[in-house]
Design a protein that fits this description.
Low-confidence stretches: none
Strand order of the largest sheet: 1-2
Protein name: Flavin reductase
Number of domains: 1
Number of strands: 2
Number of helices: 3
Helix content: 40-55%
Length: 82
């Protein structure tokens, strides 16, 4: 069951604090796109910083199985489509 509130990441596991799915979840993505409407470059820079933070956290939690490439999860969805 989803909790009330915004869809924010729970660090260091990087799951959504509201719906429990990997962050950014669908609702978080929509919220971020709305918040950064007209400034896609700033959104991508922000997400790149969070991707690196998530990589560090997830690697520290599971050093034997690092998270791999988080680009699709954090960045690919936010790129402008032609």
């Amino acid at each position: 069951m989803a909790r009330p509130g915004p869809h924010l990441p729970v660090r260091p596991v990087w799951l959504c604090g509201r719906c429990g799915t990997p962050w950014p979840c669908g609702a978080a993505r929509l919220s971020l796109l709305s918040e950064y409407r007209g400034d896609r470059t700033s959104l991508l820079v922000y997400l790149a910083v969070l991707r690196e933070e998530a990589r560090e956290h997830l690697t520290a939690l599971h050093p034997a199985t690092p998270p791999g490439d988080l680009t699709d999860r954090f960045l690919t969805w936010a790129r402008a489509r032609p």
